[in-house]
């Protein structure tokens, strides 16, 4: 069965997993900016994974604050470049 809109998705977080609770709270605090944050976070994660810079072990805790800072820095850099091109 094909989705009606492949660009809309629902994510269910586990309320008994502290990492899931933290991420759900973080995303909920962002209001309408959460889709852009998720896109940037996934792109950064994929890039680091492809470069072999992420631990491959399952269950290794991630430092979400560091990841958030990296994503926000990338977003700031891209916005700065967009302003320079304008």
- Low-pLDDT runs of 5+ residues are none
Q: What's the overall geometry?
A: globular
Please identify the structural class as seen in this structure.
mainly alpha
What is the alpha-carbon Rg in Å?
Answer: 15 Å
Q: How many separate domains make up the residues?
A: 1
Provide a count of the helices.
Answer: 3
Number of strands: 0
Span between N and C termini?
43 Å
Please tag this protein with its features:
86 residues, mainly alpha
Strand and helix map with partners:
Layout: H1 18-28, H2 34-50, H3 64-85
How would you portray this structure in words?
This protein is mainly α and about 90 residues long. It has one domain. Helix content is about 60%, strand content about 0%. The chain has 3 helices and no strands. Helix 2 (about 35-50) crosses helix 3. The model has no long low-confidence stretch (mean pLDDT about 80).
Quick summary of this structure?
With 86 residues, the protein is mainly alpha-helical. Helix content is 58%, strand content 0%. It has helices spanning 18-28, 34-50, 64-85.
């Amino acid at each position: 069965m094909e989705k009606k809109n492949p660009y809309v998705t629902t994510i269910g977080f586990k309320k008994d997993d502290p990492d899931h609770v933290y991420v759900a709270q973080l995303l909920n605090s962002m209001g309408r900016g959460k889709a852009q944050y998720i896109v940037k976070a996934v792109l950064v994660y994929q890039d680091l994974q492809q470069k072999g810079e992420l631990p491959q072990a399952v269950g290794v805790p991630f430092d979400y604050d560091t990841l958030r800072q990296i994503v926000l820095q990338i977003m700031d850099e891209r916005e700065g470049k967009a302003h320079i091109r304008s």
